[in-house]
């Protein structure tokens, strides 16, 4: 499957459709609405995490990468979903979240319990925090003041790029990469057609610390080889002139989520002028044959607005959030909303997941959110 030209419908099973009346969405609910998803023009379904998780970060804090959380159903429900998608000529993409695990994951628990455990080497530890101020910044400043957390049981600090309840995996370690390859194969054997790869630049950097070859991008080549040709769509929030190595020679990622253009899309909407959008699209380097950029209309990662100037951000706020209703996001910038209902008092994810508006198709690979 190639991703260029496809229309991707992203959804969070927890917020999509409740089939059993327990107040939360589930996989059976997704199955019931697949005809609707196909009818709106989507040909690819991207499912957000449905794995076993304490659910402190919308399921991105995983304790079992190979099973379905009971809150969403069973493995049989997932296999039914995949089979029905394929009957409708819908491809299925799922999340590959392997930059970190939940601190409740059996690997991390074993790592904490025994200094001689092989799982101790699965994570990144230090006797003292090792921060490079230029790059080692918490993804969620104001929520986390450091990327290191002290573990009393181990007597060392463990690294967490995101939340302290999400410990970073050392993807440079061969045993960790073997685990990742096993996770990929597990889901390919169940009919999955592709993966959205979470937090890609963080993994490349960690790989480079373990093996400086090719600045760490060798990790993506290994990941693509493990995926055996199925598409990998990467979360790569970098400037356009840095996209190239993530594609390689079409032997790494097959698609890059273009955060840069997404920022400029909303500036274009605020101005009712296509020029910023065209600027973003023209900044995209030509990808290798078979690779593409994914431009989205709504999704759970918007809007960080980091790529806009302060004046441009204020234009977007004036248009869509004149009362400055917002939540903090990466880099200390803000995420603003208007029009869609937002339930305050919850996590950033709950606010995002309930803030989905219908969108229209954007030329190129598109994404629609539930």
Percentage of β-strand residues? 15-25%
N to C succession of SSEs: EHHHEEEHEEHEEEEHEHHEHEHHEHEEHE
Uncertain residue ranges: 327-370
- CATH first level of the largest domain: Alpha Beta
Straight-line distance between termini: 23 Å
Helix fraction?
25-40%
Number of DSSP helical runs: 13
**Overall SS class:** alpha/beta
Structure commentary:
- 31% of the residues lie in helices and 17% in strands.
- The chain is an alpha/beta fold and 370 residues long.
- It has 2 domains: 7-98 and 174-304 and 357-369, Glycosidases (TIM Barrel); 106-168, Alpha-Beta Complex (Oligo-1,6-glucosidase, domain 2), CATH 3.90.400.10.
- It has an 8-stranded parallel beta sheet with strand order 14-13-12-11-5-2-1-17.
- α10 (259-271) runs antiparallel to α11 (275-282) and α10 (259-271) packs across α12.
- 42% of the residues are buried.
- Mean pLDDT is 87; it is low at 327-370.
């Amino acid at each position: 499957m190639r991703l260029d030209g496809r229309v991707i419908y992203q959804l969070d099973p927890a917020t999509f459709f409740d089939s059993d009346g327990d107040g939360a969405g589930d996989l059976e609910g997704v199955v019931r609405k697949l005809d609707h998803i196909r009818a709106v023009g989507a040909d690819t379904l991207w499912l957000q995490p449905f794995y076993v998780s304490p659910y402190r970060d919308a399921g991105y804090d995983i304790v079992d990468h190979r099973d379905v959380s009971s809150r969403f159903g069973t493995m049989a429900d997932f296999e039914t979903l995949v089979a029905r998608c394929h009957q409708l000529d819908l491809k299925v993409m799922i999340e590959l979240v392997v930059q970190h695990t939940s601190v409740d994951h059996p690997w991390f628990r074993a790592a904490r319990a025994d200094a001689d455990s092989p799982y101790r080497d699965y994570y990144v530890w230090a006797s003292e925090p090792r921060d490079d101020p230029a790059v080692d910044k918490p993804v969620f400043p104001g929520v986390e003041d450091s990327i290191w957390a002290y573990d009393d049981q181990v007597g060392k600090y463990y690294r967490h790029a995101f939340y302290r309840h999400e410990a970073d995996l050392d993807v440079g370690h061969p045993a960790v990469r073997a685990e990742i390859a096993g996770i990929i194969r597990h889901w390919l054997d169940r009919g999955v057609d592709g993966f959205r790869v979470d937090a890609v630049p963080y993994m490349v950097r960690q790989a480079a610390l373990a093996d400086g070859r090719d600045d760490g991008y060798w990790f993506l080549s290994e990941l693509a080889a493990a995926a055996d040709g199925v598409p990998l769509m990467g979360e790569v929030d970098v400037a356009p002139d840095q996209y190239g190595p993530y594609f390689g020679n079409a032997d790494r990622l097959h698609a890059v989520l273009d955060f840069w253009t997404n920022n400029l899309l909303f500036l274009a909407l605020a101005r009712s002028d296509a020029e910023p959008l065209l600027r973003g699209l023209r900044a995209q380097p030509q990808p290798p044959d078979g690779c593409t950029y994914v431009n989205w209309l709504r999704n759970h990662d918007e809007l960080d607005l980091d790529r806009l100037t302060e004046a441009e951000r204020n234009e977007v706020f004036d248009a869509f959030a004149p009362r400055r209703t917002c939540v903090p996001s990466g880099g200390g910038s803000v995420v603003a909303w208007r029009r869609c209902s937002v339930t305050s008092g919850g996590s950033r994810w709950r606010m995002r997941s309930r803030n989905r508006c219908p969108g229209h198709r954007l030329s190129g690979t598109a994404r629609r959110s539930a």
